[in-house]
Amino acid sequence: MRRRDLLKLGGLAALGTTAAACGGGSSGSAGNVQLQFMYWGSTFEKKAVENMLRQYEQKNAGVKVKPLYTPDEYDVKLNTLVAGNRLPDAGYVPMSMSFRLGEQGKLVNLFPYLKKYPQLAGYLPDAYLWSGQDNLHGLATANEAMLLWFSKSAVAAGGVTPPANAASAWTWDQMVENAYKLTIDQNGKRPDESGFDAKQIKQFGISCSFTYGAAWYGFLRSNGGDIADETGKKCTLDSPEAIEVFQNLQDLVYKHRVAPGPGQLAATGDEVPGTNILLKTKRVAMVVDGHWSLLDMNESKADYGIGVLPKYAEPFTATQVAGASAVFTGSKHEQEAVELFAFHNDPRYVDLYKQGLWMPQEKKYYEDQAAIDSWTKNELHPPEFRTAVVDYTREHGVADFRNRVKNLAVIASDVLTPALQEIESGKRPAGEILKAAAPKITSMLQGWHHTQEL
Q1: H/E element holding 352?
Q2: pTM across the whole model
Q3: CATH superfamily of the 147-317+402-444 domain
């Protein structure tokens, strides 16, 4: 799941076509306009972003954009630019940092631009990032969703067919039952067979991260739980619903022995191979991971399939698993910067959607058949993509809590992540750990980030 950490994604979706469509501003009459666009990502993303910037320049005579590719220590370098008041014009911003910078007035309020350019108001509601009433500091780039990836050959050998639509989603118990069929030791025995060697597992049935919140947030919501109450100031991870979810995750490893524990997938040191490698080598038959894995699956020619997550009650998956992007205040060319910002992840100009790294933010790409086909109807998107991803995301997505909880970076570092790591270790029951952690988290909670209807 390394790409998950690398591609923290950010951004805003399409504004329109060109500056002319937005009412001018960066047309030939604008003269010599110099902009800077700061971003991170893989080498593949770097290539796609640079191609987008070239297209923007071609469509906007008189405007030149300097790419500021920053693959390492992005937070540190951006903070340094903020401190020195040497901000770029537009670019990616780590999600938690975006709220801080928005509240400090370091990011342009895009709310007035929603009124000026109606195209900006066509996004999924959870894509908008608010620092306060009518203060829209940015948007998430990609509507990434959590999915159930699987090795086609592994599940076929086990006689298992992961469902590709929400209506057929497995219950948790059904998923466990099928994970038994897909877990085998070096001698070909399964966990429910005599002589099974849990220390010599050749293929695990399923893998799901304990510490990556988006991986389990859909389960939590499906079981009627959440990380906090409606005020966002009382932690509810000690509720029976939450405890059941985390105990079930722990049981996958230590009771059922169908999922890997800490260190069991690491090839060298603490480095865990990417999901595409885990499936391709059949080290794991099914993996809970984000949509962005599609790019690696295709690049590595993995024999993969996509399914929906198991459910408790109503099926849910975490969506908007992303970073942010924004226009920085102080730009000498704010109008052009906003236009670049809106252009920079338009599916018509960025091939990261067709290639499988990003999912669009505009509603039409989930509702209009022609728009859906424009990014999914190609050989890089498998036949089940429409139901397992597009329909599933549209009808059963819940916004990742990490985009909504104030002060989460500190909470996660000091309390939440250590608690999740202890659950993963199996040394104590999940309920005992969560009941100790919840009051500490409550004392740190500051509420949910502001939301509002357009």
Answers
A1: helix 352-355
A2: 0.90
A3: Periplasmic binding protein-like II (3.40.190.10)
